[in-house]
Design a protein that fits this description.
The structure is a single chain. The protein has 210 residues and is of the alpha/beta class. The chain has two domains: 13-64, Multidrug-efflux Transporter Regulator, Chain: A, Domain 2, CATH 1.10.1660.10; 76-209, Response regulator (Rossmann fold, 3-Layer(aba) Sandwich). 39% of the residues lie in helices and 16% in strands. The chain is built from nine helices and nine strands. The strands form two sheets. The chain has a six-stranded parallel β-sheet, with helices on both faces. A three-stranded antiparallel β-sheet has the order 1-3-2. Strand 7 (152-157), helix 7 (163-167) and strand 8 (175-178) form a beta-alpha-beta unit. Helix 1 packs across helix 2. The two termini are 25 Å apart.
Length: 210
């Protein structure tokens, strides 16, 4: 099964495909259907099928990210770090290795919030320790603003054992990368399809550390 839905174009989705994307069981998907949360229709044998448009509506309603293959829009990424060298390396690497990604940068917490509002990125790569506003404060502001609540956040730090790193477990950060960064693993995390369900994991203190 391919989580990016590249093999599902032009046809409805199965409960197993929806389950894999949402990191739940097919039984949970059927429960959503029976409760009227997710629209679906049934084959004569009783199997459910979910139209892509209905699945997109479900994801939007419950503030989950929409698969890239459902949209022709390029991914927008904001990289926030106070080290110019890291900004240059990450912007260059993501623009080169990404699939037409739009990559912008910010060098402090205030600039990060301004560009979040202007760019409306799909993903924020956030250094935890920045001037003016640190990563923890930025994440708090993100959760407070309706227009940014769906932004995926991946944190970066040279000190993963700090108090600030620990606080991110309740602020919707899906994983924390320790510097120096492993670009291969970072790209894998960026391309991972769901990860906003990890907001639920984060609320329970299970932020992934890389």
């Amino acid at each position: 099964m391919n989580n990016d839905f590249s093999n599902s174009r032009g046809r409805p989705l199965t409960t197993s495909e929806v389950a894999e994307y949402c990191y739940v069981t097919p039984k949970a998907v059927k429960h959503w259907i029976s409760e009227g949360k997710l629209k679906a229709w049934q084959l004569p044998g009783g199997h459910y099928r979910i139209e892509r448009e209905d699945f997109m509506e479900f994801l939007t309603k419950y503030k989950l990210p929409i698969p890239e293959t459902f949209s022709t829009k390029p991914k927008k990424i904001l990289v926030a770090d106070d080290e110019p060298v890291i900004l240059t390396i990450l912007q260059s690497a993501l623009e080169k290795l990404g699939q037409g990604w739009i990559v912008e940068t910010a060098s402090d917490g205030f600039e990060t919030l301004v560009k979040l509002g202007a760019l409306k990125p799909d993903l924020l790569l956030l250094d935890i320790f920045m001037p003016k506003l640190n990563g923890v404060e930025v994440c708090k502001r993100i959760q407070e603003m309706p227009e940014t609540q769906r932004v995926r956040v991946i944190a970066m730090t040279g000190n993963p054992d700090s108090d600030a790193s620990q606080q991110l477990s309740s602020l919707g950060v899906e994983c924390i990368f320790t510097k120096p960064l492993d670009l291969k693993k970072l790209l894998e995390a960026i391309n991972s399809p769901l990860r906003n369900s990890s907001r639920l994991e984060a609320a329970q203190g299970r932020v992934v550390r890389v």
